[in-house]
Design brief:
Blueprint lengths: L3 E6 L10 H6 L4 E4 L14 H9 L7 E6 L1 H12 L4 E7 L8 H15 L3 H12 L8 H27 L15 E6 L7 H10 L4 E5 L6 H4 L1 H12 L2
Parallel strand pairs: 1-2, 1-3, 3-4, 4-5, 5-6
């Protein structure tokens, strides 16, 4: 049986480690590609379209399944603007489609300033409170894995990702145009992209399915790897 080409897009501060459990567990049904931001030319972050096109160009010709987490989910919906005919199914994990208000932009600028001034470790510590629920912070292997993943990205890529996130367009009006089978996944306790953002995406995308993962925060692929893999396996088999 032919395997499904599957593109998994990591989020802000996320290396391919984000999807390592799924890459291993879904290898029997999918040919998986995970973009590595460290290999991308820095100018891709000049616009949402340029980042989306760089990602699409990594895939072989033809249709593929598309999934993204957080910033990766936003980029997945950008891909739906430029190459919808190539996407046969879509999964949006712990993400949202709203634009940023001035307060949110100011917070992003403050984090960038801290990183630029040599306080990247402080920025990573701040991000941990958004990425991982407080009740999971004593889980040292999980926290160490997330810190290692974020540290791999580094200050320059992080800064460019934050700058791009600050100027993102409101994609909610484009969601009803999505016609492929779509699953939306969110951790119940996601502090970075709260559940209501997933609920409004599910309401806007025709025929989509919303799956809420209990006792889980923003990084569903790492916090609940087996449950996330099962969700994606079911989605791939539709």
């Amino acid at each position: 049986m032919a395997k499904t080409p599957l593109l998994l897009i990591p989020g802000l501060l996320c290396s391919p480690r984000l999807f390592a459990p799924q890459v291993a567990a879904l290898a029997d049904v999918a040919e998986i590609l995970v973009p590595d931001w460290r290999r991308a030319p820095l100018p891709i972050w000049d616009s949402w379209e340029s980042a989306a096109r760089w990602i699409v160009d990594l895939m072989p010709p033809g249709k593929f399944a598309l999934a993204g987490l957080s910033l990766g989910g936003m980029l997945a919906v950008e891909i739906m603007q430029i190459a919808p005919e190539r996407v046969e199914r879509l999964a949006l994990l712990d993400t949202g489609m709203r634009s940023q208000n001035e307060t949110e932009r100011a917070i992003r600028r403050a984090r960038i300033r801290l990183a630029d001034e040599g306080h990247f470790e402080l920025v990573l510590g701040m991000q941990m409170t958004r990425f991982i629920p407080a009740y999971r912070l004593p889980d040292k292997p999980l926290v160490d894995e997330v810190l290692a993943m974020c540290g791999e990205i580094g200050v320059e890529i992080y800064r460019r990702q934050e700058e791009l996130a600050a100027i993102r367009a409101d994609r909610r009006p484009d969601l009803p145009k999505i016609k492929c089978p779509t699953v939306i996944v969110c951790g119940r306790d996601d502090a970075a992209t709260p559940l209501f953002l997933s609920e409004e995406m599910a309401a806007a995308i025709p025929g989509s399915e919303l799956v809420v993962v209990e006792q889980c925060g923003h990084l569903v692929t790492l916090e609940k790897p087996d449950e996330t893999t099962a969700i994606l396996r079911k989605w791939l088999s539709r």
